[in-house]
Amino acid sequence: MKKVLITGITGYIGEHCAAELLRQGYEVIGTVRSRSKADATRKTIGQVAKINNLSFVETDLLSDSGWTEAMKGCSYVLHIASPFFLKEPYDENLLITPAVEGTLRVIKAAKSAGVKRLVLTSSTFAIIAGKDTGKYGPNDWSDINLNIGAYAKSKTLAERAAWKAVKGSNMEMTAILPGAVFGPPLGSKAEAQNVKMMKDLIAGKMPMIPDMAMGMIDVRDVAKLQVAAMIKSGAAGKRFIACSAEPIEMSALTEVLKKAGYKKVPTVKAPTFLLKFISLFDREVKGMLPFIGKKASYDNSETFKILDWKPTPMSKSFEEMATAITVNEKK
Q: What pLDDT, on the 0 to 100 scale, is given for residue 322?
């Protein structure tokens, strides 16, 4: 039985990746910053997969301690852990430092442990941030010299550092670049930005929706693509765009929710001038500004061809996400 180490296993994507690996017969080792999180995560994953072959190790992306021991005997690593909040931080290094240093620390330990392949979770923000409307593919990169926001900058710098770190080594690397991730969280404690946004939408806490259109993907598809990227021979050394080829308007999300009976969901778009004004004193809105009004499309052809992606319809993803959140809130 092959062993896989997952960083960020307690997160929205990480829990789904662990469940998918366990269902496919792998032994999974999840990294946690605190042992106190392990029990809750084990229980959550246990709702959808057998957890006999699930264990945890305590590590920190900003500390060398524990990483080499954690990866002993592992064939693969899924590096998912990375700080993310849409709210623009006072200091961009609060995002950039742990993203870059943590990625390099994981890669160093993986190479020392003889890991065969590492799958890095990057983001489409590492491709399209700062770009105008157009079509972009795996060979494109965001320009960190532009005002693209701390999160996009952190993902771009971390991925570039990762490719440089594995160059010339015996360890293979593949990068998965998800767009906006939706779909049902496994537990009630999911803290992902899009989970929080969905909670606010269905609770009527968002009076208007931003004029945003994004490439989107279901979280369960992200998990399946991670596993495919881990084992497919043709995936080594490649970047895979993991989202719809065409951008999906936020209004499409709210329309699905309205039809599903969520009456408090807003349908009015927030004027851009209003968002710019609010951004002067709201750092979360400030974090959105680089993406307002942009409608980038993607060349995701290799994701279909090499990873055999069969996308979940986003209408299904939105509705099942809202249902899961509603059920979890009642627990």
A: 95
